[in-house]
UniProtKB/TrEMBL annotation:
This is Recombination endonuclease VII. SUPFAM superfamilies: His-Me finger endonucleases (SSF54060). InterPro entries: Endonuclease_7, Endonuclease_7_sf, His-Me_finger_sf. It comes from Pseudohoeflea suaedae. It holds the Pfam family Endonuclease_7.
Length: 219
């Protein structure tokens, strides 16, 4: 018995499905397809677990008038579309219905929405950053952004933009904990290596000044 428009696999190339339940279970696929009629004459996919003909199972469900049959049928078709995409080696696939946010692209592995995943990763990174800033420096993302805006996105010491668009580091007093400004990685490390000792900075500056004025004799 060939598939008709009422069958959830109608229009899909089910010949790509694994040919046995064992092979289907090995790749995490719910269905397999043999191309052989079942006892009731259906040439349909079979469940990897138990090997029951899908058409028979659904016919039985319709006869029993299950209240959620329509939803189950839609879910089965969605899973089959995803399985076929996975078998074809696609990392993503396009389902027939969008996610709750209206996006159509999903990962074949997790079945998560690709766009929602990206948005959630950004939100998670922002929340982690917010927690870190609050815990370590007592400021929020908004306050950090305001500081960066006041400095024009530049380091407060060298007045240069950070290399490779790296975020500016929060500089704070290690005694009081007060935030002093935002520095590039180089300046932040420099004041740390000189122990924030003004006399050392002045000595270093004088040393460099004298070195530039002194003629170096080679050999």
């Amino acid at each position: 018995m060939a598939a008709n428009d009422k069958d959830f696999w109608a229009g899909l190339d089910i010949s790509k499905l694994p040919s046995s339940g064992v092979a289907a279970r090995d790749i995490g696929c719910v269905f397999f397809y043999t191309g052989i009629e079942c006892l009731h004459g259906h040439v349909a996919p079979r469940y990897a677990k138990g090997g029951r003909c899908v058409a028979c199972a659904h016919a039985s469900a319709e006869r029993d008038r299950l209240a959620n049959w329509t939803g189950k049928k839609g879910a089965a078709r969605a899973h089959l579309i995803r399985s076929l995409a996975s078998i074809d080696g696609h990392r993503v696939y396009v389902p027939e219905k969008p996610c709750v946010n209206g996006h159509y692209l999903r990962w074949t592995g997790s079945n998560n929405c690709v766009e929602c995943d990206k948005e959630n990763r950004v939100k998670y990174a922002e929340s982690r950053r917010e927690a870190r800033l609050k815990k370590k420096y007592g400021i929020t993302n908004s306050e950090y952004s305001e500081l960066a805006k006041e400095q024009g996105g530049k380091c407060k010491i060298c007045t240069q933009y950070p290399v490779n668009d790296q975020p500016l580091h929060v500089d704070h007093c290690h005694k009081s904990g007060a935030v002093r400004g935002l520095l590039c990685s180089r300046c932040n490390q420099a004041i740390g290596l000189l122990c924030e000792d003004v006399s050392l900075f002045m000595a270093a500056a004088e040393y460099i000044k004298q070195a530039r004025q002194t003629k170096v004799v080679a050999g």
